[in-house]
Amino acid sequence: MDRLTMIKYVLGVVILLLTLGFPLIVTQPSLVNFAILVLMAAQLGVAWNILGGYAGQVSLGHAVFYGIGAYASSVLAAKFGLSPWLGMLAGGVIASLFSLVVGWPCFRLKGHYFAMATLAIAAIVEILVTNWDYVEGAIGISLPMNTSGWAAMVFTRSKTPYFYIALGLLLFSLAVSWIFKRSYIGYYFRAIKEDPDAARSLGVSLSHYKLIAIAASAFLTAMGGTLYAQKELFIDPGSVLVGSLSIKIALIAILGGVGTLFGPVMGAVVLITIEEFTRQMFGSTGMGTDMIIYGGIIVVIAVFSPGGIAALFAERERAWRARQRRVVFNPPGEGI
Amino acid sequence: MKRLFRRLCLGALGCTLLVGAARADDEIRIGAIYPLTGAAAGTGVELKAAAELAAAIVNKEIPLPGNLAAGAGLPNLKGAKIKLIFGDHQGNPQVGATEAERLITQEHVVALIGCYFSNVTATASQVAERYGVPFLNASSSSTPLTERGFKWFFRTSPHDDLFVANFYDFLKEVEQKKGIKLRKLALFNENTLWGGETTKIEVKLADEQGFSVAEKILYPAKSTQMTSEVQRLKAADPQVLMQSSYLGDAIMSMKSYKELGFAPPMILANDAGFSDSEYLKTLGKDGDYVLSREVWALDLADRNPLIKQVNDLMQARNKVNLNGNSARVFTGIAVLADAINRAGSTEPEAIRKALQETNIPADQIIMPWKGIKFDEKGQNALGTGIIVQVLNGQYRTVWPFNLATTDVVYPFPKWEGR
Amino acid sequence: MTNLTVTLLAQTVASGLMIGLIYALIAIGLTLIFGVMDIVNFAHGEFLMLGMYASFWGASLFLLDPLVTLPLTALMLFALGVLIYRLVIRRILAAPMLSQIFATFGMMILLRGVAQFLWKPDHRTVSHSLVEGKITVLGLQFGTPQLTASLGAVLVTGGIWWFLNRTRLGTALEATSIDREAATLMGINSQRMFALAWGLGAACAGVAGALLSTYFPIFPEVGADFILIAFVVVVLGGFGSVAGAFWAGIIVGEVEVLGGFFVGPAYKTALVLSLFLLVLLFRPRGLMGKA
Question: Cβ contacts (< 8 Å) between C24 and chain B: which residues?
């Protein structure tokens, strides 16, 4: 293990400990809320990345899985009194099944076409749910806030439990993502992404592995949707199925670095910070200044760091290693 | 690039801390959450202006008009001043909740007002409930908002149940007065929380009161054309078209009616887009003859001199007349100021108590209500609706008949003869 | 639906055609850019919005009708398109598709913000346009602005088609879109072609905006209403095909209007999107796309 890897592990542990202790150190509720938003966004980015990053299938319709998660747990709770914890699993399963139904025909499509198809599917589902009376259509579902506690996954006093649930979900998603990256499936994914034709000729069943990726990605995204419903206690198609949400989920991963384990997490930190910061500082003027800054920063990042934030770090790391190598191979005594 | 991020993050933190620290003691901070960017920003900016006008009057920055509630400032707090802190919810319920939390915990507001959109009001008021901060809602009409059993939620405006009931009362009274039949309805409502709920109540009351619904359309607000909608309505050939639209769709629907020659005998609109200042500015004469349920009209100034005084101030500051939306927000701030003054303190519990005991008589507000007094659910029990008609580019009160300044023009004239 | 008459139906078809032609014009700009350089421009609706504002200011400040200022609007948008290409797009040509989406998405938000900053979020309309009122033919009613707009759309589309197929510059553009490397070898400066595609693409959206401005409300977010439809038209017609976008625009307009009429307006967009998915799955090249 070289020094850099050690530093990375130490840094990772420190960040994890700091995150674990965050709600204990920071008592300002709106900062805790901000941290929850970051964790939730990061979790979505990590989930998206399994499909969009590793399997190289760019989805612009992930809100549909998010919405399924939010609606499944809320409807099951409102109509059948089911615990949202079970609802979360149910939402994940339904989203996975739905993703398989959608993925099977759509994986034949390449690049832009796949992206457009997912965009369209999400928009169709949004319209259908808006007009579906059983799930209260456009009116949306309000969850009661009178039964709070871990069993009901509703916390009215402090938001700290939401923080830990979001953190737990993020860590779980990272673990799934890590398994994908490390396992033979991950190698297949990279093979698919780098050279689909070569991979196919080697007998890698493309659609088989893409289906595994989309099912996992959908499952995790739906879990995030349930958490949203439990945190805000109100969902409607306009808040959990809307197209701009799909794009935001993709943005998080793209900004951070597609196909990297921690990229989406960094992306979430940066994107949510920009979003909240610009709105808080400038949104209240009603002048659109926040949008100018937010949009401007996105353009600048896309232009100057197309590989995302992770690419910046990777570059530094390469440069550092190159320097190290030079140092090692230099004969002793020669220069400093 | 990295340095930029770091600076941004630090900046965000720094600013929030600074903002939290730098405030005077004699300042009473009230949070106001409205859509200041996004599709409804036009409305939101106007509401902001109305709230600021109310605050300026309370703070005596401009002379007090008449015997307006809270016009005397805050004598019980030694003349402390109100400071409004605005939040932008962008039409997004989650952002609304986030802003509510920020305003409460970082800006230390003593009360909140907002949010225009019913679905955002739903989430933002939940946050206020959690923290035990009074939330005054001035203009979201979704009925269930006051059915949630909240302790900290107050609504000055009447809600959809009352508005829709008003529609049917109005129709029946016009039927009697004019000797006509207005029983065949078409419902044409936008498809978010507000339109969806309105449709539900409209259908229910139509059944109960012997009206028939010939067509019921929930249309998507983001549309590039309304041809199919209008053609369906035409095919249904209703006697009364009941419509709930926000501004953009209100404008587009009127243009489509004109283009396709759709002129039902009566268009009965549901406030919002139809009472926005932009509606007439944009449509001019094509906006005429529409009836709209309202909570306010400028021509009520004949009966209530306060209305003219406040409207003149609004004109002077913002070069725009008050309308049903902005007048309600103005009143909302006045009600809050009145309660804070009576509470004599900025303690949330004291303000809540004072709000509960609110009893403002009709002649101290600019609304045509019987006054302001909250029931146990936090709903103003004295609110009433009126119905206005756009005639020659002005909103004229036509119902209730005892407040009317002019007679209802019926039927809606065909487009050709205009 | 008791009074379903032939007139009602014919009227619906006519309206579908008119809006469809506008969709086609917007989508042609999008498809040009895509065809030449494989970039999906999320900010395309904002070009439309800027075209509308240009017409609005021409009308309210200088009392010039949007139809009079139309060439100027087209020129301004052309310049803007080229500028955005030079400032932003040129730098991300080699970047992965994702960062391209990302960049144009950021631009979309940025331009909306700029519009709100400069011109307030109000809804505005051009009053007293040259084309007001309506024409009645055989009992069918055509709003004059809508009719003018759709005729204008046909003319511009025809013009673009002529340019691409009958002029040297246009053929060079077409050649670049068919095979960039071969075109470069033939001495075509692909950078210039890309800039031209962006200029033309933005100009098409600008013209569509000018035509729409005679009857459509103008506000900073107006592009959002059109962008999804424009994507659908582009894919349906085949990425990069001008003729395809033209026919696809009409089809989308008709499906939307007739589908909305028969199935229910609530589902009109869902119907268009379903058609789009079917075409995507069974004929991914679109109606007239290049293989």
Answer: none
> To probe the interface with B, which of C8, C109, C123, C254 has the most B CB atoms within 10 Å?
C123
User: How far is A277 from chain B, CA to nearest CA, in Å?
Assistant: 6
Beta carbons of C87 and C230 less than 8 angstroms apart: no
Of A58, A293, A303, the CB nearest to C88: A303
Residue to test with chain B: of A279, A287, A313, most B Cβ within 10 A:
A279
Distances (CA, A) of B368 to B321, B398, B405, C199: 17, 13, 13, 55
Structure token pair of residue A83: 């615990």
**The residue count for chain A:** 336
Residue partners of B218: CB distance under 8 A and separation at least 6: A130, A131, A137, A138, B189, B190, B191, B195, B196, B199, C266
Q: Does B232 touch chain C (CB under 8 A)?
A: yes
Contacts for C94 with CB less than 8 Å, ≥ 6 apart:
none
Using one digit for the tens of pLDDT, what is the confidence trace for C208-224?
999 999 888 899 989 98
- Within a domain: A199: yes
Contact with chain C for residue B236, Cβ under 8 A: yes
Task: Give the CATH number of the domain where residue A132 resides.
Answer: 1.10.3470
Residue C1 pLDDT greater than 60, yes or no = no
Q: What are the tens digits of pLDDT across the range A26-72?
A: 888 888 999 999 999 999 999 999 999 888 888 999 999 999 999 99
Chain C residues in contact with B254 (beta carbon < 8 A):
none
Residue A34 domain-assigned?
Answer: no
C263, amino acid identity: V
**What residue ranges in B182-321 does DSSP mark as E strands?**
184-190, 212-219, 240-244, 266-269, 291-294
Partners of B184 in beta bridges: B212
| Cross-strand bridge partners of residue C180 | none
Q: Which strand (E) or helix (H) includes residue B226? A: none
pLDDT for residue B6 is more than 50: no
In chain C, whose CA is at the least distance from the CA of A308? C99
Q: What is the dihedral of CA A119, A124, A127, A129, to 10 degrees?
A: -110
> Given an 8 Å threshold on Cβ–Cβ distance, is C112 in contact with A291?
yes
Report the residue from B217, B237, B247 with minimal CB separation from C3. B237
CB distance B196–A137 less than 8 Å? yes
CA distance B87 to chain C (A): 17
Cα torsion A134, A136, A140, A146: sign: negative
Q: Which domain holds residue A231?
A: 40-143+150-327
B14-56: pLDDT as tens digits: 444 444 444 455 789 999 999 998 778 888 999 999 999 999 9
Does any CB of chain C come closer than 8 Å to the CB of residue B237?
A: yes
Question: Per the CB < 8 Å rule, is C106 touching A298?
Answer: yes
Q: Is A39 buried (19+), middle (13-18) or exposed (0-12) by CB count in 10 A?
A: buried
Do the domain assignments include residue A23?
no
ipTM of the complex: 0.87
pLDDT-flagged residues of chain A (< 50): 331-336
SS3 content of chain A, % helix, strand, coil (to 5): 80, 0, 20
Break chain C into its structural domains and give their ranges.
27-222
Angle at B108 between CA B107 and CA B114, to 5 degrees: 80
Contact B130 A37 (CB under 8 A): no
* Burial class, A197, CB count within 10 angstroms (exposed 0-12 / middle 13-18 / buried 19+): exposed
B148 inside 8 A of chain A by CB: yes
Q: Does B217 touch chain C (CB under 8 A)?
A: yes
Under DSSP, the state recorded for B417 is T
Token pair of A329 as six digits = 């191979």
Supply the pLDDT for residue A280.
83
Residue A32 in domain = no
